[in-house]
Design goal:
The chain is an alpha+beta fold and about 180 residues long. Helices cover about 25% and strands about 30% of the residues. A hairpin with a 5-residue loop joins strand 3 and strand 4.
């Protein structure tokens, strides 16, 4: 993993010192609403048994995003190899950074790195169908809708009955857009 720079962000491989910032994200009900329906109660949750990533700063394939201007914590991005040239994109941003284009900016930096340096052939991402903000990020990066799935959730989240949408982008399509 390498340090990535965009116009507004620096993405660095995560570090244990980022753990408190990651935990603060999980305590924000709005940030977590489409993952588990609300804030994570760290006294009751076993991070090894949840269905979503709870990084603590030692995970491979996770970058911490900070503003270039002042190093303020923005969130995290991940590009997780799935094998066979496939990787899955993920991200989580602080609520006060929503709506500024930073999610798309960071996601595009990882997509470019994934195709240009990591050798991935295809990158996918998913979210709940009702998470319009995340869907818009995927679309802005060039990903296109592929399918909707209806997985059984251990704890139903509001909107999960509408399914989980999957988006994808191939290396060829990425290259043609550059």
């Amino acid at each position: 993993m390498t340090v990535l720079h965009t116009l507004n962000l620096t993405l660095r491989p995560c570090h244990p010192a980022d753990g408190p910032d990651f935990i603060a994200l999980e305590r924000d009900a709005e940030v977590m609403q489409f993952l588990n329906g609300g804030p994570v109660d760290h006294g009751r949750v076993d991070p090894d048994k949840v269905t979503f990533l709870m990084p603590r700063g030692h995970e491979p394939h996770v970058w911490t995003a900070r503003r270039r201007a002042d190093e303020a914590f923005v969130g995290w991005f991940g590009l997780f190899p799935e094998g066979g040239g496939l990787a899955e994109l993920g991200y989580r941003l602080r609520r006060d950074h929503w709506g500024r284009g930073l999610a798309s900016e960071g996601a595009m930096a990882l997509i470019d790195w994934g195709f240009g340096h990591a050798g991935h052939d295809r990158i996918i991402a998913c979210t709940l169908a009702v998470n319009h903000g995340s869907r818009r990020v995927m679309e802005k990066t060039g990903m296109t809708y592929e399918r909707t799935e209806y997985p059984a959730a251990p704890v139903p989240v509001a909107g999960s009955e509408q399914g989980e949408v999957w988006y994808g982008l191939s290396r060829d399509r990425w290259a043609s857009r550059r």
